[in-house]
Amino acid sequence: MIDIDFFRKIFNSYLVKKLSTKDPLSLYEPISYIMELGGKRLRPILTLISTDVFGGNYEEALDVALAIEVFHNFSLVHDDIMDSAPIRRGEKTVHKKWNINTGILSGDVMLINSYQYLENYEPDLFKQLLKVFSKTAIEVCEGQQYDMDFESCDHVTISDYLKMIKYKTAVLVAAAMKMGAIVARASEKSQTAIYDYGINLGIAFQLQDDYLDAFGDPKNFGKQVGGDIIENKKTYLYLKALELATSEDRNELKNLFSIRPTDPQEKIQTVKEIFVNSGAAEETRNQIKNYTQLAFEILDEIEVPQDKKRIIREFGTKLMNREV
How many other CB atoms sit within 10 Å of the CB of residue 288? Predict the structure, then answer.
């Protein structure tokens, strides 16, 4: 039976076949390093699933899936530099293992590579795929800029934050699914519906990621737990805590998010307590469920066989309940 693990294995095998390290090694070794660190392969799996759901041959979507995954990892390499992040997927980030200049240049090559994979499609499909991919790439950059702007902005609203994560995270999830539907020659109505499904799933995914950043198990999470708190990122947890906390806790939270202590562990612990006591942690979990349910409601309206929908629903359920 075709399931999520089947598509993961298919994609990982294709990735291994396509990865190559060549001269100059100092440019290409970091690319192999970040791509081989693994990760959930969320986006390429969704591309393959989407193609299959709409009656296409998932093997024809492998280059799209690869383009999506290479682009995603390029964005992580550059994001980690901007965030001064030391750990990615439980290992050193590229700029920590090598240096910042190498991280920038290797990331640039990955961005170009991601476009090259789309060149393998016939002109009509290439044009459709390129249009979605380029629009999404710009939106991801816009989302990253919003994210950085929010660090120094005193008046971030929850709607501002949801817009930011839509651009930074959800649009790439949605594009992965729409591009899979394009490869399958699905109707424009179906392409739009699966894109909207991906938007809601992507927002739920990022809210879960934010939650795990604060409350995840360090052994499983693969990144520095409390990293968003250290970087004073105004996540949904933070913004909801400002809304729900007592005035005393609200003032303390604002103060803590204005400093970067040498030893951040006490700050992380205090902030997490405020998140829990204010109800922000529970409200974040509720929103994860709400956006996942919105995605499922869209899925119910898509006209494909129920057995095809099952795997998409299963994927969404697993994402909502994940611990890494």
Answer: 23
